[in-house]
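Incident log, entry 3
Record: Antifreeze protein (104 residues)
Problem: checksum mismatch between cached and fresh output.
Input:
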Amino acid sequence: MLTHLFKTMDQNQRLMVKTWQLWFSAATVVQLRVMQMALGTLRPEEAARMVFEKLAAFASGAERAMRAMAGGKGCQAATLAALAPVSRRAGSNARRLTRSSRRP
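Fresh output:
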């Protein structure tokens, strides 16, 4: 009984942290890309990446969530699985765009 409770609490806490990390990363990426658009410095490959990376990340997340649910792992585990590829992509974009915006 207690083991299940602690597992659920741990998953809820990880879900909350991952959601906030995704939120901050996405906000950073949107801010930097909009700034690039406004300044006219957005490269064509970056514009294409904005569209195509989302399709791949959401498709991968949906597959991971379905596998978690089919494996009987529960809603929190499925949500964490779905967030993983999107969060990883947003975080790497935020780091990459932040580094490139600091260059003179």
